[in-house]
Amino acid sequence: MITLSKVSKTYQDGRPNAFQALKAVDLEITPNQVTVFTGPSGSGKTTLLSIIGCLARPSQGRIHIDGQEISSLPERFTAQVRRRTFGFVFQHYNLIRGLPVIENVMIPAYPEGVSPRELRSRAAALLDQLDLTDMKHQSVELLSGGEQQRTAIARALINDPSVLIADEPTAHLDSHLSASFLTIIERLKIQGRTVLIASHDPLVYQSAVADRCVELQDGCVRTDS
Amino acid sequence: MIWINRQRYYLDFILSSLGRRKWKNASLICVYMLVVFLISSMTFLAGALRREADLLLHESPELIVQRMIAGRHALMPVDYIADIETIRGIQKVIPRLWGYYFHPASGANYTLMAPEAFQHDDAKVVIGAGVMRTWDPGPTGTLVFKSSKGGTVELAIAETFESQSDLVAADLILMSAATFRQITGVAPGWSTDLAVTVRNPREIQTIANKIVDALPDARPILKSEIQRTYAAVFHWRSGYIIVMLSGALLAFVIFAWDKATGLSAGERTEIGILKGVGWDTTDILMIKFWEGLVISLTAFLGGTILAYGHVFFTSAFLFSHALKGWAVLYPEFHLQPFVNIYQLAVLFALTVVPYTFITIVPAWRAAVTDPDTVMTQG
Amino acid sequence: MIRAGHFLGFIIFCMGVSICLFTIHPRITSARYHQIRERNRQLVVALGLTDLCLFTEARYTRHISQADLHSAFQEHPLALEHFPSGAIVPPPPIFHHPNPGTPGE
Questions:
Q1: B275 Cβ under 8 Å from any chain A Cβ
Q2: Are residues C32 and C54 in the same domain?
Q3: Count of domains in chain C?
Q4: Residue B43 and residue B40: Cα distance in Å, rounded?
Q5: Contact B212 C102 (CB under 8 A)
Q6: ipTM of the prediction
Q7: I need a labelling partner for A190 at 20 to 30 A (CA). Which of A116, B225, B358, C64 fits?
Q8: Does any CB of chain B come closer than 8 Å to the CB of residue C74?
């Protein structure tokens, strides 16, 4: 269970161009559910996902994961939480160019110090589940958009996190690939993972996969259904 | 085991990262290796020469007595020997006959010497290998000198020193005393200087003072001063070493500064991605540490190995022109391989350690910033 | 992992070569150089030599330990027209540590 209490985030705090991206947000993320965050650009969706996933610290408020407060933890502990609890699929995938697919997938697990053989077999299994076995040794810049996204998903799952976070996952995909993405999300939900998606794509927030839809506007929760 | 696996992953990642910018990193390693090569070569050459000078000149006469008139070197009357021999502690005084001969055809300066016990007759000479190389004796195998009276003196070569003796004898032309006086014009009863042997080397300074008291126009030169002269020549503070070192060190500082002034956009993006997927600051700094170590260790090992080969297998051929300068005659170096491990350790500390540290510094800022920008960057 | 393994292997190889060159090679060649040095030592003793034959470009650079005071001031080896000894050879130690009783002191 992830709980946000009065979480606010202000960028450039104290400066003339200070911008409050989130305003006193209270939220409870239910496990084993697919939650979609919607809203217009600048509503705070990406910021909310960053804060939930320990990529950024809130300016005010607290975040609890399974009863433990993580918002004030030192950086190396939040990095550990980020690595073990969350898997990220970034909007632009952020794969490392020049590295083959399998190495991109393994990277988040390096700090864990798992044995190379085990890590390789874990990565190979994930690629197999996502139909990327043939692309294992190919450089990521040679992949199509859909293949890159699946590589990003495999990377997000390498540490077996309980929560997958995806930011605008269908932004660069056609409807066919978007549907494939939703199929993968459904599979993850069946596996018992919690999925958080930020999207303004109706294909996503209106799909049957989504259990909950939270609408944001100007940094506040407008509706929660 | 976890720690070892982690370090292997970091190393593997950074090697692939270096490979992704292979030309830039290859040229970096080459420049770095060249700097280490130059510094190591000079260190090895100077160290080996200094050691050789130390060991060989240890056998030099304990005291050389020169005569001075109006501050200039003047010939020594052989009669002075009687005044010096009476000083307590002196074992032997030998008059030395030596001087220089400029040979216009070759443009070389040679050292003429008439040793006390010359084994051949007046018409023969024993020469160094450098003389053989520069002064073509022709089919007759003779050397023709101009005498001090204007005529010529033709001398046959009885023997040639091996080139392995070049360090002490490359330019030597040994002859009998009579022949020496005929060529140079040094009259009988005069010598170039005196070589003095003492019973107790610890009394040498006292004896030198007594010589000056007995002969106010004499200037004694101690063996320790001779050895110190050469120690100073090959010391790192000597002019040439400083000039060469400065150039190499300046090159090193320039490219290390370029490294230290910041990361490229690509490197910053990579760090952001790594933080985004769960690496913390320590992990980022560890890969930068490995990057610095990979480059500097490769350059250090490559540079020192090449330097060793350059100095001890090819007689420092790259430096030979610089060291030879305008000299026509130049010795062949047959230096015993010798590496001062302390100097090597200092070189390691001066090259590997700072560079490794410099590689970490610019990454620090990127490593400590929140990775939330990864969510929005493309 | 292959890259890390290859690199570590390369470093170990280079370190092995370094150790052989810096420690073993001098030892195995010492006998030959000892012979060369012994011959040279005998020459130094027999001829009473005081200087190595390094700088032969000018007469007063050849025997740097014997350079007298006057020429050292006028045409001191630091005069750069005498290359390279002008850049290498510092003033003889007698300048820094003159013998007591030296004429002119």
A1: yes
A2: no
A3: 2
A4: 5
A5: yes
A6: 0.89
A7: A116
A8: no
**C42 and C4 in one domain?**
yes
Chain C neighbors (3+ CB pairs < 8 Å): B
Cβ pair B278:A84 closer than 8 A: yes
For residue C80, pLDDT over 50 is answered with no
Checking if the pLDDT of C87 tops 60, the result is no
Residue type, A201: D
- Cβ distance C70 to B70 less than 8 Å, yes or no, reads yes
Q: Which residues of C touch B222 (CB under 8 A)?
A: 99
At residue A56 the predicted structure's pLDDT band, cuts being 50, 70 and 90, is: confident
pTM of the predicted protein model? 0.81
CATH node for B76-191: 2.40.40.20
For residue C39, tell me if it sits in a domain: yes
Query: Which of B226, B228, B344 best probes binding to C when mutated, by most C CB atoms within 10 angstroms?
Result: B226
Q: Are residues C6 and C43 in the same domain?
A: yes
Interface of C with B in 25-54 (CB under 8 A): 25-26, 29-30, 33-34, 36-37, 39-41, 43-54
Question: Are B72 and C53 within 8 A, CB to CB?
Answer: no
Query: Cβ of B92 under 8 Å from any chain A Cβ?
Result: no
**What pLDDT score was predicted for residue C1?**
61
Q: What is the mean pLDDT of residues A65-92?
A: 87
pLDDT at site B210 = 92
Contact B1 A113 (CB under 8 A): yes
Is the CB of residue A20 less than 8 Å away from at least one CB of chain B?
A: no
Q: What is the DSSP letter of A138?
A: S
C59 domain residue, yes or no = yes
Who among A56, A94, A110 is closest to B9 (CB)?
A: A110
Place of tokens 């001087």: B99
The values of phi and psi at residue A29, to 5°, are: -95, 120
Q: Do residues C62 and C89 both lie within one domain?
A: yes
**Same domain, yes or no: C11 and C32:** yes
Flag whether residue A39 sits within 8 Å of chain B, measured between CB atoms: no
Q: Kindly determine whether residue A96 and residue B270, on different chains, have CB atoms separated by under 8 Å.
A: yes
Domain segments of chain B: what residues? Answer: 2-57+231-377, 76-191
Residue numbers of chain B with a pLDDT score lower than 50: 378
Residues in Cβ contact with B196 at an 8 Å cutoff, skipping those fewer than 6 apart: B61, B62, B63, B64, B65, B84, B90, B92, B93, B94, B207, B211, B220
Q: Mark whether C31 and C59 lie in a shared domain.
A: no
Share of chain A above pLDDT 90, in %: 44
- The whole domain housing C70 covers 50-98
Cβ–Cβ < 8 Å for A30, A212: yes
C55 plus C89 within the same structural domain: yes
Confirm whether C103 is domain-assigned: no
User: C44 with C60, same domain?
Assistant: no
Inter-chain touch B8–A116, beta carbons under 8 Å: yes
Q: If pLDDT is split at 50, 70 and 90, which confidence band does C74 have?
A: very low
B273–A contact, CB cutoff 8 A: yes
Q: Binning pLDDT at 50, 70 and 90, where does residue C91 land?
A: low
What pLDDT score was predicted for residue B131? 93
